[in-house]
Design a protein that fits this description.
It is a single chain. By secondary structure, this protein is α+β, with helices and mostly antiparallel strands. The protein has helices at 71-79, 88-97, 100-103, 117-129, 133-150, 156-167, 282-318, 330-360, 363-387, 398-404, 415-424, 426-433, and strands spanning 172-175, 192-196, 199-209, 217-223, 233-239, 245-249, 261-271, 275-276, 320-321, 324-325. It contains 12 helices and 10 strands. The strands form 3 sheets. The protein has a 4-stranded mixed sheet with strand order 1-4-5-8, covered by helices on one side. It has a 4-stranded antiparallel sheet with strand order 2-3-7-6, with no helix packed on it.
């Protein structure tokens, strides 16, 4: 999820496109070139100078897969050498060097969504099974939001940054939530970028930014002109080690490996080619990828709640009360079944909304999905924590998972704000419910 909680969606792109057939092949991206079109995917650079043992072809996009060697298999092999408690940087490096990250964008869909949603869902499910919510959040924000936004950039500097991130040699933080404005109101942000005589000067601050700690690049949403108009903002690609950048850890024990922190920019001076995309297009570009992030969050929510349900079922089967397993208690079984129904309904909604969004790029349905994720995930995790009893208080237990999963109801649009948008479009949704296939 991104770290924003906006009250309303940014303006939608002008012309929705129609979908083409799904492609599972992995064509090799064109070579990096400073004149490459905005939507190109440059091939990651060869060997990393900091790792001389890395062969020159280690970062190349893999050849098309044989049916018996699919994306999920390559993903598991890429992660297999890592311990379950691996840091987010190590996981990101393994994904990049295994060709997994690049494979998410190997086929551009005619509807404008740059990410293969099936593969993204598989990635998040496999990561969730490792049990570290901070690492999963770190990967989700980069794959669903930051990298697609970087694809809009032209120029050699942004192309090089994107190639390094794809290869796993660097991470990128999406810095939208402002310290000078509520996270629910992007148009009120106070972080500013001044463009003068071929260079940029960035001042301001960002709070609760995933990947702030350990990122090589910061993708910063900044005000370029006064006013609340959607054309007043631009994205700026900031090297994390640029003079004037300060990073401090967020004061929370939750999602420890997400690298969440706060950023300060004091007179950060950059060349003009650090602007990402066309000036004034930051919010419309963000809107183009908002649906992808919300669908990604739903994939994660389904994987996470399913994992906790399975763990809860196992505990109930092995804990006894009055000589009988708790699983045989009819009240316990009813409550567990109700949770299972909720997750099954969420998965069905995810499948339906994904089709709607990819066909018509209808962000209203993505907002409805986001609201459902916030409501259902918390309800299921709360009941599982109760069903687990004292075990739910253990390290990594259901209570801790529920607290960390609150990000599903915050990042990318708080649940209450999403519900307000659903109410605004009530007639549209009611009409859809009354339509028979």
């Amino acid at each position: 999820m991104s770290d924003t909680r906006y009250a309303s969606s940014p303006p939608e792109p002008d012309a929705p496109a129609r979908p083409g057939p799904r492609q599972d092949a992995h064509p090799t991206p064109a070579p990096t070139d400073p004149d490459t079109p905005n939507d190109a995917h440059p091939t990651p650079p060869p060997a990393d100078p900091a790792h001389p043992d890395t062969p020159n072809d280690a970062h190349a996009t893999p050849a098309p897969e044989a049916p018996a060697d699919g994306f999920a298999g390559r993903l598991r092999r890429a992660l297999a050498p890592l311990p379950d408690d691996a840091e987010a940087g190590a996981v990101w490096r393994a994904l990049g060097r295994g060709g997994i990250t690049a494979a998410l964008y190997a086929s551009r869909h005619p509807n404008g969504l740059p990410v293969d949603l099936d593969r993204l869902g598989t990635l998040l499910s496999v990561l969730d099974a490792r049990g570290d919510n901070g690492v999963t959040l770190s990967v989700l924000v980069q794959t669903a939001s930051a990298l697609p936004l970087l694809a809009n950039a032209s120029g050699e500097r942004c192309a090089t940054a994107r190639a390094r991130v794809l290869a796993g040699d660097a991470r990128v933080a999406l810095a939208a939530t402002d310290e000078g404005a509520p996270g629910s109101d992007l148009a009120a942000l106070t972080t500013e970028v001044a463009v003068r005589a071929g260079h940029l000067t960035l001042d301001g601050g960002k709070r609760w930014i995933t990947n702030a700690l350990g990122a090589g690049y910061l993708l910063v949403l900044a005000r370029q002109r006064p006013g609340r108009h959607f054309t007043s903002f631009s994205w700026v690609l900031v090297p994390a080690d640029a003079p004037g950048v300060t990073v401090t850890p967020a004061d929370t024990p939750l999602l420890a490996r997400s690298g969440t922190g706060h950023l300060r920019f004091e007179g950060v001076r950059l060349d003009a080619d650090h602007l990402v995309g066309r000036p004034g297009r930051a919010l419309p570009d963000f809107a183009r990828h908002m649906a992808t992030e919300r669908i990604a969050g739903a994939y994660w929510a389904v994987a996470l709640t399913s994992r906790v349900l399975r763990a809860t079922r196992d505990r109930l089967a092995h804990r006894e009360s009055d000589g009988r397993p708790l699983w045989q208690n009819p009240v316990v079984r009813r409550d567990f079944a109700a949770c299972l129904v909720r997750v099954t309904q969420l998965r069905a909604l995810l499948d339906s909304v994904t089709g709607q969004v990819t066909a018509d790029r209808d962000l209203a349905w993505a907002g409805l999905l986001k609201a459902a994720v916030g409501l259902e995930a918390d309800a299921v995790l709360s009941r599982c924590a109760e069903l687990q009893g004292a075990d739910g208080m253990a390290r990594g237990g259901a209570h801790r998972i529920r607290a960390e999963a609150a990000v599903l109801g915050l990042g990318g649009g708080a649940t209450d704000l999403m519900l307000a948008q659903v109410a605004d479009r009530a007639e549209t949704f009611l009409d859809r419910l009354g339509t028979h296939p």
